[in-house]
Every structure is written in structure tokens, then in C-alpha cells.
Amino acid sequence: MSGHSKWSTIKHGKAAEDARRGKLFTRLTREIIAAAGQGGGDPEANFRLRIAVQRAKDNNMPAGNIDRAIKRATGGGADGVRLTEATYEGYGPGGAAILLQALTDNKNRTVSEVRSTFTKAGGSLSEAGSVAWQFRQRGVITVEADEDEADDLSLAAIDAGAEEIESFDSLLSVYSLPESLESLRLALTEAGANIKTSELSMVATNTVPLDAKSAMSALRLLDQLEDLDDVQKVFSNADFPDETLERYRGENG
User: Fold this and answer.
1) How many domains does the chain have?
2) Tens-place pLDDT, residues 196-208
3) Is 53 a member of any domain?
């Protein structure tokens, strides 16, 4: 498993800490609001909203919170929310490409915060389209599986149309075409999988290997970008050395 894939998997382990700080629920709420505002408040008729609601449920968001978020987006709440989607692209230490997805009510504020964060960490914010071509959208399902379960679940995923499967620690990362995400999740559920997350993600088509110094600087930059209030998701094509990832996990686990 590459250092890039391990980083993606390790990020899921930080979700519990994000939830304790309240940050994860805030991001999930904003994701639901954006999806409902764009395609309507009926999950059955709005694919993006279905995915956002499922992700919220996977992270144990109460049903009442989900309903309130949908109502806020569709005019049924006390305060109407208008969020604009924005994508930012840049380069981090070592030349790694970084792609950010944000939801904001003030683009000027957001781009200023993103640019400042890049600059202070030795990276640079670049023009639209400069790095996006290095990523493609894929469905990603993360499954908790012990050694005895992993092979059977991997076979079930392949039979259901999984494009790729990667294993790290006790987690399987299962990749699919975006349109196959829901059917693949259903197949894994029927096979008894303990699904931790399922979402649409931007996955790098090629990776850039980093040395230890650049890798640690890049990891810190990615953390700082994820901590910005308006940033929803951060993706990179950096390939990190295993020893650097272990050090990073020890410092942030």
C-alpha cells in the first residue's frame, strides 16, 4: 500500500477527534445544506443528498440534526442558509498537488485564509485547473475488517463492481465508480461488513513521492487546511514515506 493511500486511511482515524470537537458535525451539516439547496430536500430524488445523509448517519449524526439541516436549506428553517461551493488548487512542499473543496458564505474571506495557509507552510495557491486534472472522482467505502473477514469481504466487493481494494491495519478501502457507490455499499452491508464511511472523493491518478522533510511539512499543511472553517475536504497526490506517516500518526493519533 502506498504512502498516499495510508495517509488517506489514517485520516479516517482522526474523524473521532473531529467529532469530539464538534467540527465533523458542522461539516456534515454544511454538506447536507449544500446538497439540499442544489437538488432539493428529497433524498430519494437527490443522489448527492442521499450520499451526504448516509455519510452523516455513518458518523452517528442524530436524525433530528439531519432533518433540520435539510429544512434550513429548503426554506423550512428559522434561518435561511446560502452557501457557495468553491474549489481551490495549489502545491505543497515537495511539489505535491493539493485540491480543496469548500463551502462558504464569503469567498473573499475563504480564499484569503487558504492563500495565507499555503504561503506560511511553504506552498502556493495556484490557478483553477492547475492540479484538478490529476484527480478523478470515485466512490470510497471504508470497512473495518479483521484478518479472517478481509478476504471474504474483498471478494464480495469485487463481485459487486469494486475497482480497487486496499488494506491497512484493520481497514479496507474499497474504490468504485461514483454511480456504483450505493450498490456496492448495499452489497457489502449484505455481506456483513462493518462500514465506517462511504463517500464521494477525489482520488489522485498519479502520486508524487516526498522525502521525509517535505513529507512532514506537507502533512502539517494538509492538517492546517483541513482546520479552516470553510474547508470541507482536502485531497493530495503526495506519496509519504512510511516512517514519516508513523511519526505523524504518533503525534496526531
Assistant:
1) 1
2) 889 999 999 999 9
3) yes
Domain of residue 65, CATH code: 1.10.10.200
> Is 26 inside a domain boundary?
yes
Per-residue pLDDT tens digits for 27-84: 999 999 999 988 999 999 999 999 999 999 998 899 999 999 999 888 754 455 678 8
Burial class (CB in 10 A: 0-12, 13-18, 19+), 182: middle
Confirm whether 85 is domain-assigned. Answer: no
Containing structural domain, residue 39: 3-73
